[in-house]
Amino acid sequence: MFAAFNLQQMISAFIVLFAVIDIIGSIPIIINLKEKGKDVNALKATLISFALLIGFFYAGDMMLKLFHVDIESFAVAGAFVIFLMSLEMILDVEIFKNQGPIKEATLVPLVFPLLAGAGAFTTLLSLRAEYASVNIIIALVLNMLWVYFVVSMTGRVERFLGKGGIYIIRKFFGIILLAISVRLFMANITLLVEALHK
């Protein structure tokens, strides 16, 4: 398994997941939840998110086969989702609305859809089309450690970065996500076109 380890792939996967999960951009939401008196458990949120993401990473492939969808097609669909998420971050618009019935703050909205949402699920499977599994899993574990640190230190992180700092980081990673979605789309649409010509 570790024979396939590649530092560059791991760093790339880490940056993609870091931008998609965007825990820094979620700090104002977490603070708002705490101000409303809703309990946010950092450890519980991190562990549940990690379990959901790892579960989908391994079972997602099986689910795709069940619906006769190949990984390249899913990666192209994922590129569209990542593209829309990047537009949310760059343009300050809300495209993905959370209108679910669950009111507990640690599970909704923190675990789903902020940490383990459609974007993160799609990104994980899209990354599988390009990178070795071990590099993606290490990148995911590092991201979850970062998530735990940020959620447990929300107040301090916000004071350190300031509202302006959080805003700039969100815009910066929005542009990175936009570039990633274009690259993901181009790489996988080429593979799909080649498969059609065979």
From TrEMBL:
Question: What main location does UniProt list?
Answer: membrane
Q: Keywords assigned by UniProt?
A: Cell membrane, Membrane, Transmembrane, Transmembrane helix
Q: Which residues cross the membrane?
A: 12-33, 45-67, 73-93, 105-125, 131-151, 172-193
- Taxon lineage: Bacteria, Pseudomonadati, Bacteroidota, Bacteroidia, Bacteroidales
Recorded family membership: Belongs to the UPF0056 (MarC) family.
Q: Among the entry's GO cellular component annotations, what is one?
A: plasma membrane
Q: Where in the cell is it found?
A: Cell membrane
Keyword Cell membrane set for record: yes
Q: Which organism is it from?
A: Bacteroides oleiciplenus YIT 12058
How does the entry describe its membrane topology? Answer: Multi-pass membrane protein
One Pfam assignment = MarC
Query: Does the UniProt entry include the keyword Secreted?
Result: no
Name of the featured protein: UPF0056 membrane protein
Family annotation (InterPro entries): Multi_antbiot-R_MarC
